[in-house]
Amino acid sequence: MSEKNWVATILLCVFLGGFGVHRFYVGKIGTGILMLVTFGGLGVWAIIDLIVIILGNFKDKEGNVIKAS
User: Fold this and answer.
1) Beta partners for 65?
2) 42 in the Ramachandran plot: left (φ > 0), alpha (ψ -120 to 50) or beta?
3) What gap in Å lies between CA 35 and CA 46, rounded to an integer?
4) 35 close to 18: Cβ distance less than 8 angstroms
5) What's the pLDDT score for residue 40?
6) In what helix (H) or strand (E) does residue 24 lie, and over which residues does it extend?
7) Does 69 score more than 90 pLDDT?
């Protein structure tokens, strides 16, 4: 399980997901930059990430799942 906070990841995705801030937070710099450039895939990518985070399947850069504690 990841050390990153699940609630913080959700909040970053909800409020700044279009800029990929939640991906920078979990250490996924490359995809964070892609989200920043494409505005979260025009919002679609950010929504998909939000669903994955809520379901507890989102992983950090080391492959550890970010789940509610």
Assistant:
1) 59
2) left
3) 8
4) yes
5) 87
6) helix 21-25
7) no
